Amino acid sequence: MPYRGSGRLAQALGLMSNTDSSFADLEQQGEATVRRWVNTVSPLDADQVALKRAKAWLQERDAERATLAGERKESREIDALAVARQSLTNSRRATRIAILALVLNILLAIKVLLDAYGKQ
């Protein structure tokens, strides 16, 4: 059921026929209040200019939020890539150390075997 008296509500919220493109009045009311008004107002009862302005402002806010979310995602991806590169570098170093330790153990085992057979 459409919300009745939406014209009075819009007027009370300061949304009526304001052609100021800065959306300062909408900013002052807050996104939750404006979104609630847009979702409850009947298109037949509403001031069409105010309704269009409110919808445009909400779309702008949603676009800003999406842009910020994209930037945060990109930043996290860059950080994750840096961590992965550092991990790869560390694992290569660890592999080299393990191979060196294996070679040294093999050489030590050969020496022990030679010493044991040489004493016999």
Please outline what is shown here.
Helices cover 79% and strands 0% of the residues. The chain is mostly helical. The protein starts with 5 loop residues before the first helix and ends with a helix.
How does this structure look, described?
The chain has helices at 6-13, 24-29, 31-40, 48-118. It has 120 residues and is an all-alpha fold. The protein has one domain (6-118). Helix 3 packs across helix 4. The longest helix has 71 residues, at 48-118. It is rod-shaped, with a radius of gyration of 35 Å. Residues 1-6 have low confidence and may be disordered.
Which keywords apply here?
120 residues, mainly alpha, 4 helices, 79% helix, rod-shaped, disordered N terminus
- Beta content comes to under 5%
Write down the overall geometry: rod-shaped
Q: How many domain regions?
A: 1
* Helix share bin: over 70%
Record field, number of beta strands: 0
Structural class: mainly alpha
Mean pLDDT: 83
Largest sheet: none
How far apart are the first and last residues' alpha carbons, in Å? 104 Å
The number of helical runs is 4
Order of helices and strands: HHHH
Radius of gyration: 35 Å
Could you list the spans in which at least 5 consecutive residues all have pLDDT below 50? 1-6
Write the layout of secondary structure elements.
Blueprint: H1 6-13, H2 24-29, H3 31-40, H4 48-118
Helix pairs in contact: 3-4
